[in-house]
Amino acid sequence: MSTFDGRIREYPAIAVDNFQPTRPGVRIFLLSHVHADHLSGLDSRSFNIPLYCSEDTAKLLPAVRAEVSEPGTKKRSPAGKYTHLKPFLKPLEYQEPTQICIGAETITLTLFTANHCPGSTMFLIEGSKGNVVYTGDMRAEDWFLDTLESHMSSFSNILHVYLDTTFCHESFADFPSKSRSIEAFMEVIRQYDAETCFVIGYNILGVEPIWDRIYEDYGEKVHTIVRSTQRLSSF
Questions:
Q1: pLDDT per residue over 40-88, tens digit each?
Q2: Sign of CA dihedral 137, 59, 36, 208
Q3: Angle between the 178-190 and 208-218 helix axes, to the nearest 10 degrees?
Q4: Which of 26, 34, 68, 207 is spaced 20 to 30 A from 184 at the CA atom?
Q5: What pLDDT digit, counting tens, does each position of 75-124 carry?
Q6: What is the CATH number of domain 14-162?
Q7: What residues have CB less than 8 Å from 144, skipping those under 6 apart?
Q8: CA-CA distance, 156 to 12, in Å (whole number)?
Q9: Per-domain boundaries in the chain
Q10: Is the pTM of this model over 0.85?
Q11: Strand, helix or coil at 186?
Q12: Which residue from 52, 61, 128 is spatially nearest to 92, judged by alpha carbons?
């Protein structure tokens, strides 16, 4: 759960993952990914500020459906909750520095994958007030860090890092990789006979590698609910 207030202290005209259109002085917003705890304020129909994100996030965001409460049930509207944002979306490619004018200030914005879910992004902001990195939610596995090393020249002279500290505790010193986690998941499935029908209650963006692995190991179709299919079809 994100608790970040969205403020980039060095650049008050930039806010990230916390979207209040009435926030004074904000000229551009950055969105790291489309998990619900990072979308606060984007459902406002008065939103009219440029919103920078990755290309995949720009495709996924309009596909997120609104929940509609009814007595005794929860449904999702057939209309996208964030379709009104399409005119303001500014998708950027990963690792392609982009200059953006914010009033009298010009910053260079570069996106890097965060290894969290499809479209997840880290932001490198370079400008006259210093260079800062916002990681968003990231998964810093060995291969991921090795990839970042090839871009170390981009991360020179960093003044501040806005860091995801969700699991920054000694109790998570041996945090399993995605591949180890998926293998543990598959070990549970293998304990049951081949006729067993599994109903797996994961419907959050980022668990797609589990479905891929089930198909690879068993050659069986994986059936998803309609809204998951609609979301993935946005790719």
A1: 889 888 889 999 999 999 998 988 765 544 445 555 555 578 899 999 9
A2: negative
A3: 50
A4: 34
A5: 555 557 889 999 999 999 999 999 999 988 999 999 999 998 889 999 99
A6: 3.60.15.10
A7: 115, 138
A8: 22
A9: 14-162, 178-233
A10: no
A11: helix
A12: 52
